[in-house]
Amino acid sequence: xxxxxxxxxxxxxxxxxxxxxxxxxxxxxxxxxxxxxxxxxxxxxxxxxxxxxxxxxxxxxxxxxxxxxxxxxxxxxxxxxxxxxxxxxxxxxxxxxxxxxxxxxxxxxxxxxxxxxxxxxxxxxxxxxxxxxxxxxxxxxxxxxxxxxxxxxxxxxxxxxxxxxxxxxxxxxxxxxxxxxxxxxxxxxxxxxxxxxxxxxxxxxxxxxxxxxxxxxxxxxxxxxxxxxxxxxxxxxxxxxxxxxxxxxxxxxxxxxxxxxxxxx
Amino acid sequence: xxxxxxxxxxxxxxxxxxxxxxxxxxxxxxxxxxxxxxxxxxxxxxxxxxxxxxxxxxxxxxxxxxxxxxxxxxxxxxxxxxxxxxxxxxxxxxxxxxxxxxxxxxxxxxxxxxxxxxxxxxxxxxx
Lengths: 265, 127
Ligand code: SF4
Ligand code: SF4
Fold this sequence. Notes:
The complex is a heterodimer.
Chain A: E1 2-6, H1 17-29, E2 32-35, H2 58-70, E3 74-76, H3 79-94, H4 96-106, E4 118-120, H5 121-129, H6 131-137, E5 146-149, H7 159-162, H8 172-179, E6 183-185, H9 198-201, H10 203-219, E7 224-227, H11 230-239, E8 246-248, H12 249-256, H13 260-264
Helix pairs in contact in A: 1-12, 2-3, 3-4, 5-6, 6-8, 10-11
Chain B: H1 3-13, H2 25-29, H3 40-49, H4 52-56, H5 69-73, H6 80-92, H7 105-108, H8 115-125
Helix pairs in contact in B: 1-6, 3-6
The complex binds iron/sulfur cluster (2 copies).
């Protein structure tokens, strides 16, 4: 039984409840405890890379420090929270100036300088549970389904900070798809951006980007796409004009573990 | 050219624009290439030359998706997205420079739009 400090983030509380609910019930079935701290603040959705921005980095540092004080790794399932928290952790470990400014501001009992280990939920499946072990726990394999993994931009980049997988030739989501009994589909756009927040600024650009992703997956024979990001899900479903179904990876995980029907009763 | 502005942008970005060898790979891989008047390699070059006011007035600032493709694919480790971000911040930090304000949000909502899109857009387009 391994316990993680779980950071759900703002979107999983509201529009992306499926991503959260299926993550929780699946973790429980896999013997992983997701302990949510009493209070956490929104990560801000995007990491501000600017060196002269400190205030926008504080909520991520607070979450990292809460995990440190509890003596447990921090886990997220939303691609955006994962990206912000890992980039913050990378910079505070490598940039003394930034660490000094942040700590000067927060005045924690003990300075935070990057001690917490951060996992994305997929990394927990790969590195803690193990995909072979996961495969054995699958009671309802998704045999025959052709599934395209969509990494987008936030899961993998910048690779030096995210350190999750090879940013140009990733395998973690495809290995996950194999573990739940389905067949992964590789396509060119799997690690290119869906348009992200540009949907608020320029709908046409979001439509163009998300259509490129969906068409690329459909051309390679995909029957569905999986993502870990609420904003990718939104763009691919609403802006792409494609009929290809889009799901959170956690929903398929729960289905393969035989938990989905049970949770809908 | 405005020397202070150049220094501020360079410091804020943390990028070393002098390492750029002008191969254009960042622009070749940029998913917003067609929507941009100035492309990532031009941001790098124009910041090096100190021609920053031109960039601050450009719509290109608001077309970058912060996808970090240019960061990971630049063979010289220049990290162009950080240069774009520093110029965008210089622009939105100006008086009246906000591109987006919270009172504009309600009109943009639909029932499926995730919070993540709103908080991210506010972080990118406002100060
Ligand atoms: S981060 Fe911005 S400039 Fe760089 S490739 Fe992505 S959209 Fe283009
Ligand atoms: S990819 Fe790097 S080296 Fe090449 S033009 Fe862009 S910033 Fe310069």
